[in-house]
Amino acid sequence: xxxxxxxxxxxxxxxxxxxxxxxxxxxxxxxxxxxxxxSLVRLDADxxxxxxxxxxxxxxxxxxxxxxxxxxxxxxxxxxTRVLLAAPYLAYLxxxxxFNTGEAITSRTFAxxxxxVFDGVVTVDPHLHRYHSLGEIYRxxxxxxxxxxxxxxxxxxxxxxxxxxxxxAESEQWVQEVARLAGAPFTVLQKIRRGDKDVExxxxxxxxxxxRQPVLIDDIVxxxxxxxxxxxxxxxxxxxxxxxxxxxxxxxxxxxHALLAAGPQRVVTCDTVPHVSNGISVVAxxxxxxxxxxxxxxx
Length: 299
Prior knowledge:
With 299 residues, the chain is an alpha/beta fold. Helix content is 32%, strand content 26%.
Protein backbone atom coordinates (compact mmCIF):
# COMPACT_ATOMS: atom_id res chain seq x y z
CA UNK A 1 0.00 0.00 0.00
CA UNK A 2 1.15 3.54 -0.71
CA UNK A 3 2.37 5.54 2.28
CA UNK A 4 0.07 8.22 3.69
CA UNK A 5 1.56 11.68 4.12
CA UNK A 6 0.18 14.19 6.62
CA UNK A 7 1.67 17.60 7.33
CA UNK A 8 1.50 20.36 9.88
CA UNK A 9 0.22 23.80 8.82
CA UNK A 10 2.71 25.66 6.66
CA UNK A 11 4.36 22.56 5.23
CA UNK A 12 1.95 22.07 2.32
CA UNK A 13 4.49 22.70 -0.46
CA UNK A 14 7.09 20.32 0.95
CA UNK A 15 4.45 17.66 1.59
CA UNK A 16 3.19 17.97 -2.00
CA UNK A 17 6.73 17.45 -3.29
CA UNK A 18 7.19 14.43 -1.06
CA UNK A 19 3.89 12.93 -2.23
CA UNK A 20 5.07 13.18 -5.83
CA UNK A 21 8.56 11.87 -5.12
CA UNK A 22 7.32 8.87 -3.12
CA UNK A 23 4.19 8.31 -5.23
CA UNK A 24 2.36 8.45 -1.94
CA UNK A 25 -1.12 9.55 -0.94
CA UNK A 26 -1.76 12.81 0.88
CA UNK A 27 -4.19 12.96 3.77
CA UNK A 28 -5.45 15.80 5.95
CA UNK A 29 -4.41 16.43 9.52
CA UNK A 30 -7.06 18.45 11.31
CA UNK A 31 -5.90 20.64 14.20
CA UNK A 32 -8.15 22.63 16.49
CA UNK A 33 -7.22 24.83 19.45
CA UNK A 34 -9.78 25.02 22.25
CA UNK A 35 -10.34 28.26 24.18
CA UNK A 36 -8.42 26.81 27.13
CA UNK A 37 -5.34 26.34 24.93
CA UNK A 38 -5.55 22.57 24.52
CA SER A 39 -5.34 20.96 21.07
CA LEU A 40 -7.57 18.54 19.21
CA VAL A 41 -5.84 16.43 16.56
CA ARG A 42 -7.68 14.30 13.99
CA LEU A 43 -6.30 12.19 11.13
CA ASP A 44 -8.84 12.31 8.29
CA ALA A 45 -7.86 8.99 6.72
CA ASP A 46 -7.85 5.30 7.56
CA UNK A 47 -4.24 4.56 8.53
CA UNK A 48 -4.78 0.88 9.31
CA UNK A 49 -1.94 -1.18 7.87
CA UNK A 50 -0.32 1.88 6.30
CA UNK A 51 3.04 3.62 6.65
CA UNK A 52 2.35 7.15 7.88
CA UNK A 53 4.79 9.99 7.21
CA UNK A 54 4.30 13.21 9.15
CA UNK A 55 5.94 16.25 7.53
CA UNK A 56 6.89 19.02 9.94
CA UNK A 57 9.54 21.68 9.59
CA UNK A 58 10.25 22.39 13.22
CA UNK A 59 11.13 26.07 13.20
CA UNK A 60 9.29 27.70 16.12
CA UNK A 61 8.92 24.20 17.56
CA UNK A 62 7.10 24.76 20.83
CA UNK A 63 3.75 25.42 19.13
CA UNK A 64 4.20 22.39 16.88
CA UNK A 65 5.67 19.74 19.15
CA UNK A 66 2.55 18.65 21.05
CA UNK A 67 0.23 18.42 17.99
CA UNK A 68 2.98 16.48 16.21
CA UNK A 69 3.38 14.01 19.07
CA UNK A 70 -0.40 13.67 19.40
CA UNK A 71 -0.73 12.94 15.66
CA UNK A 72 2.03 10.34 15.68
CA UNK A 73 0.61 8.56 18.72
CA UNK A 74 -2.88 8.61 17.19
CA UNK A 75 -1.59 7.09 13.95
CA UNK A 76 0.07 4.27 15.88
CA UNK A 77 -3.03 3.73 18.03
CA UNK A 78 -5.26 3.66 14.93
CA UNK A 79 -3.28 0.84 13.34
CA UNK A 80 -0.48 2.36 11.26
CA THR A 81 2.29 -0.17 10.72
CA ARG A 82 4.99 2.49 10.82
CA VAL A 83 5.05 6.19 11.70
CA LEU A 84 7.92 8.30 10.35
CA LEU A 85 8.86 11.92 10.93
CA ALA A 86 10.10 13.92 7.94
CA ALA A 87 11.44 17.09 9.57
CA PRO A 88 13.39 19.10 6.97
CA TYR A 89 14.50 21.29 9.87
CA LEU A 90 14.91 19.50 13.20
CA ALA A 91 14.80 21.68 16.31
CA TYR A 92 16.32 21.28 19.76
CA LEU A 93 19.85 20.24 18.86
CA UNK A 94 21.85 23.28 19.99
CA UNK A 95 21.50 22.62 23.74
CA UNK A 96 23.75 19.58 23.67
CA UNK A 97 25.21 20.09 27.12
CA UNK A 98 24.50 21.95 30.35
CA PHE A 99 26.10 25.35 29.75
CA ASN A 100 24.93 26.75 33.11
CA THR A 101 23.95 25.08 36.36
CA GLY A 102 20.40 23.81 36.37
CA GLU A 103 19.78 23.95 32.61
CA ALA A 104 17.85 21.19 30.86
CA ILE A 105 19.72 19.42 28.06
CA THR A 106 16.77 19.86 25.72
CA SER A 107 18.33 18.01 22.80
CA ARG A 108 18.19 14.77 24.78
CA THR A 109 14.70 15.40 26.16
CA PHE A 110 13.20 16.26 22.77
CA ALA A 111 14.88 13.25 21.14
CA UNK A 112 13.52 10.96 23.85
CA UNK A 113 9.97 12.27 23.35
CA UNK A 114 10.11 11.91 19.57
CA UNK A 115 11.55 8.41 19.88
CA UNK A 116 8.55 7.23 21.91
CA VAL A 117 6.00 7.83 19.14
CA PHE A 118 7.95 7.67 15.86
CA ASP A 119 9.63 4.69 14.22
CA GLY A 120 12.18 6.79 12.35
CA VAL A 121 13.31 10.35 11.75
CA VAL A 122 14.63 12.03 8.59
CA THR A 123 16.05 15.54 8.54
CA VAL A 124 18.42 17.80 6.60
CA ASP A 125 21.79 18.99 7.92
CA PRO A 126 21.03 18.65 11.64
CA HIS A 127 22.98 21.10 13.80
CA LEU A 128 25.31 18.54 15.37
CA HIS A 129 28.16 20.00 17.36
CA ARG A 130 29.12 17.78 20.28
CA TYR A 131 27.09 14.83 18.98
CA HIS A 132 28.61 12.81 16.17
CA SER A 133 25.25 11.59 14.90
CA LEU A 134 21.54 11.71 15.65
CA GLY A 135 21.82 8.11 16.79
CA GLU A 136 23.53 9.28 19.97
CA ILE A 137 20.27 10.75 21.28
CA TYR A 138 17.47 9.26 19.12
CA ARG A 139 16.47 5.70 19.92
CA UNK A 140 14.93 5.04 16.49
CA UNK A 141 16.55 4.81 13.04
CA UNK A 142 17.51 8.21 11.64
CA UNK A 143 18.75 9.62 8.35
CA UNK A 144 20.58 12.95 8.05
CA UNK A 145 20.33 14.24 4.49
CA UNK A 146 23.18 16.45 3.27
CA UNK A 147 22.25 19.64 1.41
CA UNK A 148 25.74 20.05 -0.10
CA UNK A 149 24.95 18.26 -3.41
CA UNK A 150 21.82 20.33 -4.20
CA UNK A 151 23.51 23.57 -3.13
CA UNK A 152 26.52 22.77 -5.29
CA UNK A 153 24.28 22.00 -8.25
CA UNK A 154 22.46 25.32 -7.78
CA UNK A 155 25.75 27.25 -7.58
CA UNK A 156 27.11 25.56 -10.69
CA UNK A 157 23.94 26.38 -12.61
CA UNK A 158 23.41 29.97 -11.43
CA UNK A 159 26.77 31.54 -10.55
CA UNK A 160 29.65 32.27 -12.95
CA UNK A 161 33.15 31.78 -11.54
CA UNK A 162 32.06 31.35 -7.94
CA UNK A 163 34.27 31.31 -4.87
CA UNK A 164 32.53 29.82 -1.85
CA UNK A 165 32.97 31.47 1.54
CA UNK A 166 32.23 29.86 4.88
CA UNK A 167 31.41 32.09 7.86
CA UNK A 168 33.72 30.42 10.39
CA ALA A 169 36.16 27.60 11.01
CA GLU A 170 33.38 25.17 11.95
CA SER A 171 31.94 25.48 8.43
CA GLU A 172 35.18 24.59 6.65
CA GLN A 173 34.56 20.88 6.07
CA TRP A 174 31.00 21.51 4.87
CA VAL A 175 31.86 24.45 2.59
CA GLN A 176 34.82 22.52 1.22
CA GLU A 177 32.46 19.72 0.15
CA VAL A 178 30.08 22.12 -1.59
CA ALA A 179 33.06 23.71 -3.36
CA ARG A 180 34.37 20.32 -4.43
CA LEU A 181 31.02 19.32 -5.89
CA ALA A 182 30.62 22.68 -7.61
CA GLY A 183 34.18 22.65 -8.96
CA ALA A 184 34.94 25.99 -7.29
CA PRO A 185 37.57 27.35 -4.87
CA PHE A 186 36.64 28.24 -1.30
CA THR A 187 37.82 30.17 1.71
CA VAL A 188 36.65 30.42 5.31
CA LEU A 189 36.33 33.55 7.43
CA GLN A 190 37.15 33.88 11.10
CA LYS A 191 34.21 34.77 13.32
CA ILE A 192 34.23 36.36 16.75
CA ARG A 193 30.80 36.33 18.43
CA ARG A 194 30.40 38.65 21.41
CA GLY A 195 26.65 38.19 21.71
CA ASP A 196 23.52 37.17 19.79
CA LYS A 197 23.70 40.29 17.62
CA ASP A 198 27.37 41.26 17.98
CA VAL A 199 29.51 39.33 15.51
CA GLU A 200 32.81 40.34 13.95
CA UNK A 201 33.99 38.60 10.78
CA UNK A 202 37.51 38.77 9.41
CA UNK A 203 38.32 40.01 5.92
CA UNK A 204 38.54 37.26 3.31
CA UNK A 205 41.71 36.26 1.47
CA UNK A 206 41.48 38.67 -1.45
CA UNK A 207 43.89 36.61 -3.55
CA UNK A 208 41.49 33.66 -3.47
CA UNK A 209 38.58 35.94 -4.38
CA UNK A 210 40.16 37.78 -7.31
CA UNK A 211 37.92 37.86 -10.41
CA ARG A 212 35.43 35.58 -8.66
CA GLN A 213 31.81 35.96 -7.62
CA PRO A 214 31.70 35.52 -3.84
CA VAL A 215 29.08 33.09 -2.54
CA LEU A 216 28.49 33.17 1.22
CA ILE A 217 27.12 29.94 2.68
CA ASP A 218 25.80 29.22 6.19
CA ASP A 219 23.72 26.39 7.58
CA ILE A 220 21.38 28.26 9.93
CA VAL A 221 20.46 31.89 9.28
CA UNK A 222 18.71 33.22 12.36
CA UNK A 223 19.86 36.70 13.39
CA UNK A 224 21.80 36.94 10.07
CA UNK A 225 24.48 39.02 11.80
CA UNK A 226 27.28 36.70 10.71
CA UNK A 227 26.25 36.87 7.07
CA UNK A 228 25.74 40.63 7.23
CA UNK A 229 29.24 41.11 8.62
CA UNK A 230 30.61 38.82 5.91
CA UNK A 231 28.92 40.97 3.25
CA UNK A 232 30.57 44.04 4.75
CA UNK A 233 33.96 42.31 4.69
CA UNK A 234 33.56 41.23 1.06
CA UNK A 235 32.44 44.67 -0.09
CA UNK A 236 35.16 46.47 1.87
CA UNK A 237 37.87 44.98 -0.36
CA UNK A 238 36.11 46.03 -3.55
CA UNK A 239 34.49 42.75 -4.46
CA UNK A 240 31.00 42.52 -6.00
CA UNK A 241 27.91 41.97 -3.87
CA UNK A 242 27.90 38.32 -2.78
CA UNK A 243 25.27 35.69 -3.33
CA UNK A 244 24.07 34.52 0.10
CA UNK A 245 22.96 30.93 0.57
CA UNK A 246 21.46 29.52 3.75
CA UNK A 247 20.21 26.01 4.45
CA UNK A 248 17.70 26.71 7.23
CA UNK A 249 15.92 30.07 6.84
CA UNK A 250 14.96 30.79 10.45
CA UNK A 251 15.28 34.58 10.08
CA UNK A 252 14.31 35.86 13.51
CA UNK A 253 12.41 39.18 13.76
CA UNK A 254 13.63 41.59 11.04
CA UNK A 255 16.75 39.57 10.18
CA UNK A 256 15.76 38.94 6.55
CA HIS A 257 15.14 42.62 5.82
CA ALA A 258 18.40 43.52 7.57
CA LEU A 259 20.22 41.02 5.39
CA LEU A 260 18.69 42.46 2.22
CA ALA A 261 19.62 45.97 3.36
CA ALA A 262 23.26 44.88 3.60
CA GLY A 263 23.29 44.69 -0.21
CA PRO A 264 23.78 41.07 -1.33
CA GLN A 265 23.33 40.25 -4.98
CA ARG A 266 20.79 37.61 -4.01
CA VAL A 267 19.61 35.63 -0.98
CA VAL A 268 18.53 32.05 -1.55
CA THR A 269 17.77 29.27 0.92
CA CYS A 270 16.85 25.61 0.91
CA ASP A 271 13.19 24.75 1.41
CA THR A 272 13.72 23.14 4.82
CA VAL A 273 11.88 26.07 6.44
CA PRO A 274 9.14 27.74 4.36
CA HIS A 275 10.29 31.26 3.43
CA VAL A 276 10.10 33.68 0.51
CA SER A 277 13.84 33.13 -0.07
CA ASN A 278 13.46 29.38 -0.75
CA GLY A 279 15.03 28.46 -4.07
CA ILE A 280 16.93 25.21 -3.55
CA SER A 281 14.86 22.07 -3.05
CA VAL A 282 15.88 19.22 -0.79
CA VAL A 283 12.68 17.25 -1.43
CA ALA A 284 14.34 14.64 -3.68
CA UNK A 285 17.18 13.62 -1.32
CA UNK A 286 14.86 13.68 1.68
CA UNK A 287 12.39 11.45 -0.19
CA UNK A 288 15.20 8.98 -0.86
CA UNK A 289 16.02 8.89 2.85
CA UNK A 290 12.34 8.37 3.77
CA UNK A 291 12.20 5.49 1.28
CA UNK A 292 15.22 3.93 2.96
CA UNK A 293 13.52 4.11 6.35
CA UNK A 294 10.32 2.62 4.95
CA UNK A 295 12.35 -0.37 3.81
CA UNK A 296 14.01 -0.88 7.19
CA UNK A 297 12.39 -3.95 8.68
CA UNK A 298 9.85 -4.18 5.84
CA UNK A 299 8.66 -7.70 5.05
